Amino acid sequence: MNLPKEVQDYCKKCNSHTSQKLKQFKPGKARAMSWGTRENIRKHKKGYGGKAEFTATVKKQNKKPTFVAECAACKTKHYFVIPKRMKKIELVA
């Protein structure tokens, strides 16, 4: 799906609809000391515990695209999510 690089959207700070620049959201690096990472190491990667089994989960083939929208007037950023699942998205000028 093609999406414009600039959209008109509501800005909470300006309290009006303004032009917003879209940029694809990318999550940061996972924390090494987070609870989930420690749990994974404890269950599956430490010692001679044999082969620990993972429960088989079917992953979804696509995700809902998330963007970071930046207001042209006040430079405030907020998430802009399209509530439909799609495999490919492209920002077009």
From TrEMBL:
<dbReference type="InterPro" id="IPR011332">
    <property type="entry name" value="Ribosomal_zn-bd"/>
</dbReference>
<dbReference type="GO" id="GO:0003735">
    <property type="term" value="F:structural constituent of ribosome"/>
</dbReference>
<dbReference type="InterPro" id="IPR000552">
    <property type="entry name" value="Ribosomal_eL44"/>
</dbReference>
<dbReference type="GO" id="GO:0006412">
    <property type="term" value="P:translation"/>
</dbReference>
<dbReference type="GO" id="GO:1990904">
    <property type="term" value="C:ribonucleoprotein complex"/>
</dbReference>
<comment type="similarity">
    <text>Belongs to the eukaryotic ribosomal protein eL42 family.</text>
</comment>
<keyword id="KW-0687">Ribonucleoprotein</keyword>
<dbReference type="Pfam" id="PF00935">
    <property type="entry name" value="Ribosomal_L44"/>
</dbReference>
<dbReference type="GO" id="GO:0005840">
    <property type="term" value="C:ribosome"/>
</dbReference>
<protein>
    <submittedName>
        <fullName>50S ribosomal protein L44e</fullName>
    </submittedName>
</protein>
<dbReference type="InterPro" id="IPR053708">
    <property type="entry name" value="Ribosomal_LSU_eL42"/>
</dbReference>
<keyword id="KW-0689">Ribosomal protein</keyword>
